[in-house]
Amino acid sequence: MNQATLILIVLALGLLIYAWSRGDGSHRVGIVLGWSTLRRTLPLLVVAFVIVGYVNVLGPQNLVQNWIGPGSGWRGLLIGTGAGMLLPGGPYVVFPLIATLYQAGAGLGPTLAIITSWAALALLSVSFELPFLGWRFTLIRLSLGIVVPSLVGLVGQLLFGG
Amino acid sequence: MRKWIPDRTTLFLIGVALALAVVAWSQGGAEKTLEGLANGGRTLLSVTPLLLAAFLLAGLVQALVSREVIERWLGSQSGWRGVLLACLAGALIPGGPYVYYPLAGALLHSGAGIGALVAFVTAKNLWSVTRLPFEFALLGTQLTLIRYGLTLVIPPLLGMLAEALFGRSIDRIREAVG
């Protein structure tokens, strides 16, 4: 069992104890909510990991390194931003795919750009945004945020890219 | 039992998986096709304890931080103070876009400024506490720490920029949404 697993389990147990100590049944509500999210996303999760398996077996190292490798520069950052905006699905789908790309040789900068772009600029969630906040708001938010993934990738690559 | 109807995201991903399976088949026949499935299954099994803990954590945060709490907390906050409070609220609010956009819409109508709204959505996207466990579990400690560290300043920064540059647009935005 690795470090991340341990940290997560400790955090989950801590929060569970806190919820239980409030005495309002929120520990039970939390377990039920977590379980129902898991059940709902299980098919998606299985499909995502089938993709991960095939990417691993097909070994697209050359492809990944050419397009978004450590030496791909601005092009890699821009491709990362574009790919992040288009990635569909929640964290349990997107993160395994990004991890697979990273292991196949994607650079730190482009990888950070993909994560940040998916988180901040995902185009799929715009369809939820428009009815509640309107196109003017969406336009302002996206135009302010569009450079963020490339910048985060650039700074990350410079500071931690080795 | 309820019939399972796949949504568009699932269908799209099934398509991608099938396309990859065809590529594997053309490269190495049945052996490589099965190898891909087995590899995916092993990877999924290896992160299962992590995923269980992450789903439990996300569910508990959802139970402890309700929409009412956030709404009461933010109310009609606007200006710089609103931006910072909105960042915290965005970080804590659990759930997908179908949860936080309706809430943002409610905040817009209760008088929140554009800076606060941009900060709220951006903090939800970049600081999300409920997403953090999944990121740790699936991307690893190093990538997650670097990513959160580097994007720490973004939500307040974008919120303040939005307030400074587009602060006056908020009335038109409010009218347009009605």
Give the helix/strand class of chain B: mainly alpha
Average pLDDT figure of chain A: 88
User: Main β-sheet of chain A, in a few words?
Assistant: none
User: Which oligomerization state do the chains in this entry correspond to?
Assistant: heterodimer
Helix content of chain A: over 70%
* H/E series of chain A: HHHHHHHH
Overall body shape of chain B: elongated
Residue runs with pLDDT of under 50 for 5 or more positions of chain A: none
Q: How many strands appear in the DSSP assignment of chain B?
A: 0
Structural class call of chain A reads mainly alpha
Strand fraction of chain B: under 5%
Whole-number mean pLDDT of chain B:
85
| Helix/strand order of chain B | HHHHHHHHH
How many strands of chain A? 0
Descriptive overview:
The complex is a heterodimer of chains A (162) and B (178). With 162 residues, chain A is mainly alpha-helical. Chain A folds into two domains: 1-43; 59-160, no CATH class. Helices cover 83% and strands 0% of the residues of chain A. Chain A contains eight helices and no strands. Chain A has helices at 3-21, 26-58, 61-68, 73-86, 91-103, 108-121, 126-145, 148-160. In chain A, helix 1 runs antiparallel to helix 2, helix 4 packs parallel to helix 6 (108-121) and helix 4 (73-86) crosses helix 8. In chain A, 48% of the residues are buried. The mean pLDDT of chain A is 88. Chain B is mostly helical and 178 residues long. Chain B has two domains: 7-47; 65-177, no CATH class. Chain B is elongated, with a radius of gyration of 21 Å. The chains are: A mainly alpha (162), B mainly alpha (178).
List keywords for this structure.
heterodimer; A: 162 residues; mainly alpha; 2 domains; 8 helices; globular; B: mainly alpha; 81% helix
Summarize this entry quickly.
Chain A has 162 residues and is an all-alpha fold.
